[in-house]
Amino acid sequence: IGGTGHLGGAVLDLLQREHPDVPLKALIRSDDKASRLKSRYPKVAAVMGDLDSLTVLEEESRSADIVINCAPDITHDSGIGAVLSGLEGGGPTASTGQREQGQGGRKGFYIHTSGAATFYDEPGGVRGERVYDDMADMDEILGTAPTKTHMATDDLVRSAHPAVNVAIVSPPGIGGISPSAEHPVPLVTSVLHSTARAFGSGFQIARGENVSGWVHVLDLARAFGLLVDDALGALRQGGAAASAASAAATAAAAAAPADPAGFPLWGPRAYYFASGEEVAFRDLQGAIVPVLYGHGVIPSQAVRSVTHTEAARTCLAGGTDYDPDAPLPPPDSWVVHLATWFGVNMRIRPSRLLALGWKPERSTLEAWKEAFEIYLGGLKE
């Protein structure tokens, strides 16, 4: 799900290269996108629909071994629920292709994309010292109120255990260039561009000292690949969990899941932060402002200090000139979430993935120049 997106496209590309013999399907919204996907990946089957296509989601999930959801989770609980319901019904194993239906058959695997925005602080533009750790702080993470961003959906996913093997991957900002044919640049590229254009300069909340984690999309795709490897190993063992981190554990796996790093890879506590570096917002602006200035998007390389309210109004304007008298956007709107992101700290430590041998290899900060050149080139076409 989300296989043509920035993250999903990277995951799909990784899986078709590393597992060429495993049948893959991708949920696609339009015939045009399906055609472009098939031209790049002839072996990938396109399923027409989206996260509102509840019948399609449940039926396709019922016939699947593993479902990977890289699409936005907020407001899509019904679709995610349909996926989980389908996986509870059983499906064909990766090794035999034979369908095992019902609660007595094999357990399906669901990998869910959440987000570390659950743990950001107030958007004041100042550096915060709190760092959330997905091992040391797991009880606090699980106890977070469902009113926090992503948490209600995360709880829905956890509730599918033990009928479904579930895991949640929670990235902060996702940067870098993706092999996705539809969305090669990060999703926030457009709002960073339009907000700077409206202000006529770079921008930051207050001093711009707030720090957020970032992960390169290709590094994040490898984190998903690690979980997929484990799931495929389990399915090929006839239900015994195989460890992507240990060949010995694979050979010795029995009916109970292996814990190669001392914790379960699947289940209600299978929550994985994925962060490769920390970047202050003013440093992010320092990377993109010269590119925008060089392309004539902004007339100045200055970085303007603004308030959260000013940033929200500018996001709402959609890139037109900033209007100080414009009405405030609704407090739960997407533009307010974006403006909040400009000023918050979102600091996380991916202890679980690191324990499984995952290591980030790429910098997102160094990739912004190429990302904006691709994005601005697309605007001229």
From TrEMBL:
Q: Name one GO molecular function term.
A: aldehyde dehydrogenase (NAD+) activity
Q: Which InterPro entries match?
A: NAD(P)-bd_dom_sf (IPR036291), NAD(P)-dependent_oxidoreduct (IPR051783)
Q: Which GO cellular component terms are attached?
A: cytoplasm
Q: Which domain of life is it from?
A: Eukaryota
Q: What is this protein called?
A: NAD(P)-binding domain-containing protein
Source organism per entry reads Cytospora paraplurivora
